[in-house]
Input
Amino acid sequence: QQCRVKWPGVQRGDAQDCSDGTRAACALWREIDSLGVRSLQVCRGGYSGVGGKANLGPHFGITNRQLKFHLGLVVPRTADGTPCASMRVGNETRAWTEGDVLFFDDSWLHSVRNTCDAERVVFQLVFSHPDDSAALGRPSCSGH
Output
């Protein structure tokens, strides 16, 4: 399912076009747009899932020109309520929480761990780094 929200340079509709499964992602996109912060240029958005009992080893993006938002959509927990899906960026480890955003620099070494059986799903927005955009006079959305 795709989220369609109005955004410069990308074809999206309004909130009424969102399916029940994409409302949180669409709301995040609309909220960012309402801030009017033009130094945060969206390069792309999409969904990212990590299966149960899965780990993504340490890796980093191919450019330091992008930042990422991860909105927790489906975040598994243990029987006592402890989150079991987390990301380590540099020396910090943070767990995802449904409805909350983790914001990080993709050029830093990072890894993902999901110790539960259930899949972890986030909505990811990739932004051109504001310092880079200002220096170039345009957004830098190359790379992955």
User: Anything to note?
Assistant: Helices lie at 23-35, 130-136.
